[in-house]
Amino acid sequence: MTNNLKSNILEINNLTVSFDGFKALNNLNFSIEQGELRVIIGPNGAGKTTFLDIITGKVKPTEGNVFFKGKNLRKFSEHQIARLGIGRKFQTPRIYLNLTVRENLDLTVNPQKNVFKTLFNPVRNNEKRTVAGLLETIGLTAKAELKADLLSHGEKQRLEIGMLVAQSPDLLLVDEPVAGLTDEETENVGALLLELAQSHSIIVIEHDMEFVRQIAKKVTVLHQGSVLCEGSMDQIQNDPKVIEVYLGEEQQHD
Ligand code: ADP
Ligand code: MG
After folding, report:
1. What digits encode the pLDDT tens for the residues 39-90?
2. Which domain holds residue 11?
3. Which of 43, 149, 196, 204 has the greatest CB tally within 10 Å of its CB?
4. 240 inside domain
5. What's the 176 CA to ligand 2 centre distance in angstroms?
6. What pTM was computed for the model?
7. CA 45–ligand 2 middle distance (angstroms)
8. Domain count within the chain
């Protein structure tokens, strides 16, 4: 491992993913620093979901490599990569609707008292979270004893983010967390991600530009499987390449 990888929790080099010859990702280069919150935007078909699938090991590179904490992920399975410290939040919440908020969190904080798991899965450097602390973080203390079924869509999103955080991932991948949320819940989820960003590295994929503006420091724009440009929200919005790509998309939808 070379020294310049040291402060990058994730580094992707010359990555290409081909599906029957079609390059969903095309010679992509990307890195984020330890502790960074990065937002990724891009028109439909840009490769955003494939990008997350590559990081979690669901899809393997055709060419190129992904390094997480200096480890080449090529030889690891999806399950092993999760255990290395990468957690993914899917678009639709995956929570137990018939259990209470507290029970949902309990399950992830104290997974079945499996001796082998405890022996061979040492606690990672992030301090172990308590259910009470998690309830506080996700703002659901008052609803702890409610069945998850009764939560609003936004509260369900926050609960699932809490369940993810309970597993102490070093890198959190979050796919469109505010799709379909009210303005108020969008702000709540934004505030939660900003708080989590103080102790995690986070990649968020998002379409909602107002939300991106709320949380983003640095934004990466994907287009046709490659990085089109990177920078602050202001830089991105004034970049003629970005404007062209998004105008093109709007015209297709008309
Ligand atoms: P985004 O999430 O940015 O909309 P995707 O990563 O889902 O983009 O897809 C990028 C491109 O790759 C699209 O053109 C899509 O049709 C294609 N693609 C994605 N997954 C597959 C697959 N399993 N087989 C064939 N083509 C795929
Ligand atoms: Mg997608």
Report:
1. 999 998 999 999 999 999 999 999 999 999 999 999 999 999 999 999 998 7
2. 3-92+169-253
3. 204
4. yes
5. 9
6. 0.87
7. 7
8. 1
